[in-house]
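User: Reviewer 2 asked us to show a designed sequence for the structure in our supplementary figure. I'm pasting the structure tokens here. Could you produce the per-position amino acids so we can include them in the response letter?
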């Protein structure tokens, strides 16, 4: 048996059993993709993050993310969790990650615990009648990005919390993120995020969705920073700041389990 290091982290939460769960597994070298996917399925979290020391000089580590069903191009909460694990284990104030499809990402210590820099994801006003019919209520506006991010704007938080989407129908539309959002009651912004086509019916906290929401709400609110709550069953809080073409998401992490994964 091969013994691999394993951390289970709750990201964007200051306590266990909230925020979004991620497994973080530093490796000495890359395993084959089928094994990485099998580990992601075994862990059964929204994402398992794998990191290997980067040998290109572009960053400290190379980072990849797997859901139980596929590799994804960008995952925010598992990147924050990876930064938490490595900075806790190795020390330091910042760590960088080279990714295959999202460029170089950074996690650094901050007053919120950590701050994660992601590419800000712009959207444009659009229409997707088939998705709207499955969301569960009529949004005021729809904003879309061709990379699979859709913002569905509602009038108030109650409408977002009351949504009961047709998940099977949304799953048939592909692995898009259906990001339902409105002005919040206790935070500036509230959201729920459904990704059934990517193996996650409703995500607990979605960093990549907030890279999209940061760009969207900064323009709508007329200021670069705001607070956000993702109103999933577990819930997750973040501070959001637009700085140039980067969305900076701030929040704490909690290690829930540290141990070993045994691979035959």
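Assistant: Here is a per-position design you can include in the supplement:
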């Amino acid at each position: 048996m091969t013994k691999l290091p394993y951390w289970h982290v709750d990201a964007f939460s200051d306590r266990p059993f909230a925020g979004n769960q991620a497994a973080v597994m530093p490796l000495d070298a890359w395993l084959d993709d089928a094994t990485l996917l099998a580990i992601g399925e075994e862990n059964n979290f929204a994402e398992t993050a794998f990191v290997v020391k980067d040998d290109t000089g572009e960053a400290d580590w190379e980072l990849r993310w797997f859901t139980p069903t596929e590799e994804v191009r960008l995952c925010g909460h598992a990147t924050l969790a990876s930064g938490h694990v490595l900075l806790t284990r190795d020390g330091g104030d910042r760590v960088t990650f080279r990714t295959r499809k999202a460029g170089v990402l950074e996690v650094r210590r901050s007053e919120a615990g950590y701050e994660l820099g992601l590419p800000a994801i712009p959207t444009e006003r659009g229409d997707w009648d088939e998705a709207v019919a499955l969301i569960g209520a009529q949004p005021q506006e729809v904003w879309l990005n061709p990379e699979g991010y859709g913002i569905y704007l509602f009038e108030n938080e109650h409408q977002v919390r009351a949504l009961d989407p047709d998940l099977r129908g949304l799953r048939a539309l592909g692995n898009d993120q259906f990001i339902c959002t409105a002005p919040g009651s206790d935070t500036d912004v509230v959201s729920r995020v459904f990704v059934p086509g990517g193996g996650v019916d409703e995500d607990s906290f979605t960093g990549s969705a907030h890279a999209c929401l940061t760009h969207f709400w900064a323009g709508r609110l007329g200021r670069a920073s705001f607070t956000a709550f993702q109103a999933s069953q577990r819930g997750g809080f973040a501070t959001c700041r637009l700085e140039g073409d980067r969305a900076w998401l701030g929040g704490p992490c909690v290690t829930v389990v540290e141990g070993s994964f045994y691979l035959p």
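For the response letter, you might also mention the following. DSSP finds six helices and 18 strands in the chain. Helices lie at 33-43, 76-90, 129-135, 157-161, 167-171, 207-221.
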